[in-house]
TrEMBL record:
Taxonomic classification: Eukaryota, Viridiplantae, Streptophyta, Embryophyta, Tracheophyta
InterPro entries per record: RVT_2
Protein name, as recorded: Transposon Ty5-1 protein YCL074W family
Domain Reverse transcriptase Ty1/copia-type as annotated: residue spans: 1-94
Recorded superkingdom: Eukaryota
Length: 118
């Protein structure tokens, strides 16, 4: 979807004050931003051999031998769980940024994980 925004304060073009900017990518705070972020993250996970959950499409699983790495996305929070600490630490270490989850997000993710596992 094409999105246009007004010229932000301090970046107005005095020759063209009524012109707007066409966005090349989603900005934080716009309704398109979460969808763009989720698409980018899910593409990354699928490229790293994760499979998408069948019940919850924001739940990703990676199995390697007898080990399992679980990733649950809730809005802009990511919950990571694994059968051993090394997998979690290795996954988190590879990310450019990690968001700390709120209690609500953790509760919802835990419930979703349980439903997916069952």
């Amino acid at each position: 979807e094409e999105v246009y925004v007004e010229q932000p304060p301090g970046f107005e073009n005095s020759k063209f004050p009524n012109h707007v900017f066409k966005l090349k990518k989603a900005l934080y705070g716009l309704k398109q931003a979460p969808r763009a972020w989720y698409e980018r993250l899910s593409k990354f996970l699928l490229e790293k051999e994760f499979t998408r959950g069948k019940v919850d499409t924001t739940f990703f699983i990676k199995r390697k031998m007898n080990e399992v790495l679980l990733v649950q996305i809730y809005v802009e929070d990511i919950i990571v769980g694994a059968t051993n600490d090394y997998l979690c630490k290795e996954f988190v270490k590879k990310q450019n940024s990690v968001a700390l989850s709120t209690t609500e997000a953790e509760y919802i993710v835990a419930a979703s994980c349980c439903a997916q596992i069952l």
